[in-house]
Amino acid sequence: MESCVSRRIGVLLLPLGVLLAGCDLSLGHLTARATDEWSRSYPLEAGGEIRIVNTNGKIEIEGTDGSTVEVKAEKIARGATDTAARELLPRIVIKEDIKPDRVSLETERMSGIMIGAAFEVRYHVRAPKNAVVNITNTNGQVALAALTGKVKAQTTNGGVNGRNLTGGVDARSTNGGVTIDMASIGPDSISLRTTNGGVTLTLPDGAKANLTASCTNGGINVSALDNLEISEQSRRRLEGRLNGGGTAIEVRTTNGGIRVRPRTQAEATRTTEAEKSDR
């Protein structure tokens, strides 16, 4: 009886071992590539929401004047052969849920186990700058620019990068850095968090904020902030009021450093780096 059971277990395990071996062999040989561009344009009410959910690929959103959301999504299929890549491409589907005050796009997950194939979608979006932005990504970076509405962006494997923002920000990553440049700050809070990566926050001169920063493995650098009144400080945590206090700002990481600096210093750093590159 025992030998019979062993033989049955062996028969059941063999296909799984073959399947896993097939996955390992195929991942390093996806040299074939097929692409397709998906374009849409949607009207959006003032202060409306833009929601994008993606699995693999970068998401870029740039704020513009006007009331139209323009989306260009690059679908990319990879396979062990050209035929495999081309056959996968039509299966990459973007689900649309459109309302006057909301544009929602989601890359649908594919059912079943994919062997010898992979895909990604890269979103390039030009949107009304006052839109509320809600982004969720899994494997890929999130890049935001020139937005004045509230922003919520999270990714698992990738960084979050925002520049010239003026609204509330909630940016999170698990494996990746978070870099946010604020052109101005208002009453809405700013929360930047990551697990494995550093956090850099650039604030406008004269910004009034209540700052809380904490990390586990890494340092906290706020030395460039001239008008920061520190109420609590240790190697792992800092609390203080900037220019008398105001907007709530929380910056947190587990494995990585934290840097909070004024825009004047950031601009000087960019100028120096540009000069070096020209030499």
Features:
single chain; 279 residues; alpha/beta; 2 domains; 10-stranded mixed sheet; 3 helices; globular; disordered C terminus
Name the structural class. Answer: alpha/beta
Record the strand order, biggest sheet.
Answer: 5-6-2-8-10-12-14-20-16-19-18
User: What's the pLDDT, averaged over the residues?
Assistant: 87
Helicity level: 10-25%
User: In total, how many beta strands?
Assistant: 21
User: SSE order, as H and E?
Assistant: HEEEEHEEEEEEEEEEEEEEEEEH
Shape: globular
Question: What number of domains?
Answer: 2
Q: Largest beta sheet, briefly?
A: 11 strands, mixed
Q: Could you give the distance between the termini? A: 79 Å
Radius of gyration, whole Å: 23 Å
Looking at how many chains there are and whether they match, the oligomeric state comes to single chain
DSSP helical segment count: 3
- Catalogue the unreliable spans: 1-27, 274-279
Structural commentary:
- The protein is an alpha/beta fold.
- It has two domains: about 100 residues, no CATH class; about 140 residues, no CATH class.
- The protein is about 20% helix and about 50% strand.
- It contains three helices and 21 strands.
- The protein has an eleven-stranded mixed sheet with strand order 5-6-2-8-10-12-14-20-16-19-18, with no helix packed on it.
- The longest helix is centred in the N-terminal third of the chain and has 26 residues.
- The chain is globular.
- The N terminus and C terminus are likely disordered.
